[in-house]
Design a protein that fits this description.
32% of the residues lie in helices and 26% in strands. It has 137 residues and is an alpha+beta fold. The protein has a six-stranded antiparallel sheet with strand order 1-2-6-5-4-3.
Length: 137
């Protein structure tokens, strides 16, 4: 069931879809989130859009001091490596966290951002709702 907290967390991400300066969205089935990849030259505009909505920025060095659910999210994503970032913010409660994973590619030319909602108990309706909101089949 999509709870009010999940609706609120999904609503936090919607300004990013509307103002996204990079190419369109695809679905990342591995992490159950929306993904957009873009050239490094667009990093400044994309990062500004992300920070405007998800202002808490976590790095490899700072993630150890993150709230429990944010740390758990980073671990579920395989941990943060050098250059990777996790942005969070607008959480309606301690266990529902809208997020962006910022992952530079090893080619030095491309970055991917994954947008989603981390929740302690993920309802089956969450992925279809997120897909619908980002216009994904």
């Amino acid at each position: 069931m999509i709870t009010p907290a999940l609706v609120a967390a999904l609503d936090v991400l919607m300004p990013l879809r509307a103002a996204w300066p990079a190419p369109g969205w695809t679905w990342d089935g591995r992490f159950e989130c929306s993904t957009s990849s873009f050239p490094v030259g667009q990093a400044g505009a994309v990062r500004a859009a992300v920070i405007a909505v998800l202002p808490a920025e976590w790095t490899l060095e700072t993630i150890l001091g993150a709230p429990a659910e944010v740390g758990a999210l980073a671990r579920r994503a395989g941990g943060l490596r050098s250059g990777q970032l996790l942005f969070t913010g607008g959480a309606p409660d301690a266990t529902t966290v809208p997020f962006a994973l910022w992952w530079p590619w090893s080619n030095g030319e491309t970055i991917s951002v994954r947008l989603g909602v981390s929740v302690a108990e993920r309802p089956p309706e969450l992925s279809p709702e997120l897909r619908a909101r980002f216009g994904l089949p």
